[in-house]
């Protein structure tokens, strides 16, 4: 059940419309940074393996098989080690993910303003960011006045005043998007780790109990 929940959360994060709209973008030959998906794929793998391993442990307990329970314990140790490694990697890279996406946005924004060529898709990339995150412009002076002089790049509001007042800068929105998603991944990882610790303890207790049983 825990594996199924983790798998469900991971698949939801993987197919969330906000992140997929942004991370599937391409600026010329350059793909949007998708480091964020590494953590998601790890969660998907952990959830799927947990479901299989859970079945193995359940069957081993019903059959009172030391071999199956020992295999279950070994698989849990390996999964736990992988999750700890992934957690350390995520903690180290948590700020880098948003930073890379902001740099990609800034490059697209610069190209959209310069209108370098007809084939340049910077404008389309920037408009996707603006419409997906309901923001307009980077975190600087040019970004602050973008809704006024480049309303073709920003989502339309009802009035000129709303166009100027209601937009947040996109750097702030990118930070909020990824910090929120990474927070969910962190909660899911902690829940899985706690469940795994209990599973390892109980499987060893059961395995020792079967070994010491007079029946065997």
From TrEMBL:
Transmembrane segments annotated in the record for this chain: 36-62, 68-92, 182-206
Specify the superkingdom: Eukaryota
Cellular component per GO, a single term: basolateral plasma membrane
> What does the UniProt keyword field contain?
Adaptive immunity, Cell membrane, Disulfide bond, Immunity, Lipid-binding, Membrane, Transmembrane, Transmembrane helix
Question: What's a Pfam family this protein contains?
Answer: Tetraspanin
What InterPro entries does the annotation carry?
A: Tetraspanin/Peripherin, Tetraspanin_animals, Tetraspanin_CS, Tetraspanin_EC2_sf
Q: List the disulfide bonds.
A: 135-170, 136-154
Molecular function terms, GO-annotated: lipid binding
Membrane topology type: Multi-pass membrane protein
| UniProt subcellular location | Basolateral cell membrane; Membrane
GO biological-process terms attached to the record:
adaptive immune response; regulation of cell population proliferation
Q: Signal peptide span per the entry? A: none
Family the entry assigns: Belongs to the tetraspanin (TM4SF) family.
Q: What is this protein called?
A: Tetraspanin
């Amino acid at each position: 059940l825990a594996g199924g929940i983790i798998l469900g959360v991971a698949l939801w994060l993987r197919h969330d419309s906000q992140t997929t709209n942004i991370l599937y973008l391409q600026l010329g030959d350059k793909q949007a940074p998708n480091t964020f998906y590494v953590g998601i794929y790890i969660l998907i793998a952990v959830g799927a393996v947990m479901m299989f391993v859970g079945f193995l442990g359940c069957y081993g307990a019903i059959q009172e098989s030391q071999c199956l329970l020992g295999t279950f314990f070994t698989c849990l140790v390996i999964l736990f080690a992988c999750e700890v490694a992934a957690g350390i990697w995520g903690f180290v890279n948590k700020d880098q993910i948003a930073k890379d996406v902001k740099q990609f946005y800034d490059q697209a924004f610069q190209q959209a303003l310069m209108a370098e060529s007809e084939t340049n898709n910077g404008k389309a990339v920037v408009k996707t960011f603006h419409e997906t995150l309901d923001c307009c412009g980077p975190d600087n002076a040019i970004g602050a006045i973008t809704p006024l002089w480049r309303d073709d790049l920003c989502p339309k509001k009802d009035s000129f005043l709303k166009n100027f007042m209601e937009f947040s800068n996109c750097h702030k929105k990118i930070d909020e998007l990824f910090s929120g998603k990474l927070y969910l991944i962190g909660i899911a990882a902690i829940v899985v780790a706690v469940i795994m610790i209990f599973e390892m303890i109980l499987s060893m207790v059961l395995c020792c109990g079967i070994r010491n049983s007079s029946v065997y």
